[in-house]
Amino acid sequence: MTTESDxxxxxxxxxxxxxxxxxxxxxxxxxxxxxxxxxxxxGTDRANSLWVMDLPEGAERLAADPGTLLGGTAxxxxxxxxxxxxxxxxxxxxxxxxxxxxxLELASFALSGRLFTAELxxxxxxxxxxxxxxxxxxxxPDGTHIAxxxxxxxxxxxxxxxxxxxxxxxxxxxxxGRVTYGLAEFVAAEExxxxxxxxxxxxxxxxxVARVDDTPVERWWIADPAHPEREPRNVAYPxxxxxxxxxxxxxxxLDGERTExxxxxxxxxxxxxxxxxAAGAPLLLVQARDQRSQLFLAVDPDTGATRMVHADEDPSxxxxxxxxxCWSPSGQLVRIADExxxxxxTVGERPLTSAQLHVRAVLDVGADDVxxxxxxxxxxxxxxxxQVHVYRVNELGLERVxxxxxxxxxxxxxxxxxxxxxxxxxxxxxxxxxxxxxxxATVRSYAENPGFSPRVTLTQGGARRIPxxxxxxxxxxxxxxxxxxxxxxxxxxxxxxxAAHNAHLTSQWFADQxxxxxxxxxxxxxxxxxxxxKAVRDELAAVVLQDQVDALQSLAGEFPLDLGRVAIRGWSxxxxxxALAVLRRPDVFHAxxxxxxxxxxxxxxxxxxxxxxxxxxxxxxxxxxxxxxxxAGLVGPAEPHRPMMIIHGLADDNVVVAHSLRLSSALLAAxxxxxxLPLSGVTHMTPQETVAENLLRLQLDFLRRSxxxxxx
Length: 712
Prior knowledge:
By secondary structure, the protein is an alpha+beta fold.
């Protein structure tokens, strides 16, 4: 018998979805001697330590333990560090990030706003006494200095702790904002995929440093109603159609040199990517506000002048990718492009892949090949639903590195590749170290075993062959139709239908409560084709909702689904989609759990919302028809009314609680049944153990209460 203490909701919350104790954040030494990584001590331990695996033996040793370094005191985070972790969805503790020199001899990291270094060969760690709180410390490539951010200043200190000084101090702002150096602004960290604000030169004598002035950005206030004695928190939030932070870039020398990098910032305000390697000049990717044009720029670090290396345009938008742009060792531009209806890898001016592959990221660029992650493309012979593989690509062709069905990624340097694999039949993540493509060692995982495997079928639904996962109760062996729970994310940058075991655990728990659970990745979700992703341009609501309906109705012909009892649940974009479903299609959906939804799309951030819908001032009707509410009230049919449970963290600074409050007010004005569950002190991540556990139970209770009885 399952007890309360070992129930799935309790274990799911306590283990942070069975991720604690799993190794992550790998770095490989170029001489193939070591691999560094992070891992906590058990499947319930949140505090990560820094580890080293010595090769070729494969022996693991502890390089830095946060408990020892902090003397057993509790970790304290600055407001800036908490914000950084929220942007990266980091729920762990201890050493959550580190950086190394180019030889993987020296690592640096921050704990409680203090600067620490670890000598990875010797296995010793110590604190460097510097001004704090320290953010994002990074050694120079030669390991002689460490740059870091403290109080908005970009500072540098010798690796032995000597000569600490500021290379750029924060400046007085012309208004309520601030001017900082070395930090990523909100949209860069939240939407652009750029979490850094400074980059070392290969020779370690200079840095490229972002200067961010957030004075133009609107000020919002995040209050804690459970603690009225506390002042509301002031945040700079660039809502769609409003001003972004002003971002500039400087070359700062250790000798005090300061040179501004020049490009047309009025036309290309987004600094999306920065790359500086020994293979070429510093390389920038800058985007226009509408994200339909972008430039690849080479920088002269002596003068700050830039020259265009390549330009891209797209009538919908230009996607950003991990690992590119960069230079190959021979000095050719490496990028990922949407060309000829496919997403391809291009080196120089030559595409090296075809529509057989849908390229997702560049993992490493070597002298003889490029390591990429990719899905099966539109012209692939087999659909390989939910799979992502690692490939070696060069002018002679391609070779698949990962073999088993699943979701794979990799980190590589020289002859050593760390291959991370999540497969459908095996819990957790398997990490193999390969030397010259052959297995050399396995990195241990301390993550807990969930104790069961999902009963999942990966399939396709509807005329558009929508990728779907269908989960039935593990003890179900009949043909009596079951009530349906649609469990999507369903939008950009969120793929839920994946060939991986742990990805379907929560859906399986709901299925075991008596539901047939359906997860559908309709148009707009990643991993299919450029046209699939960009079909949502200006029609976000109609397209994503129609694909959920089509998937549901087509699967009813293959699985025992009771279409008279259909619920839907989701968080963030999935919450938006869940509310959209019962408001626009109450003939199909009968109840919804709506978590942290974006309801008025004008209240979400610039880079995300304008990518899909343009500027609200230029296309107000587009925003109106894609929002759940507008100034006149709810957008959707008046009847029938379907019950809704709306859940929102009051401390959420990404999707602020105003979204749910405005939705509730509109529902109340329309006389529609709904309930609101406010989560005090909870952000968009909901990392708190008791909150995460009880949210599952409360959702289940609502669904059981709200769906029509069988046969109605």
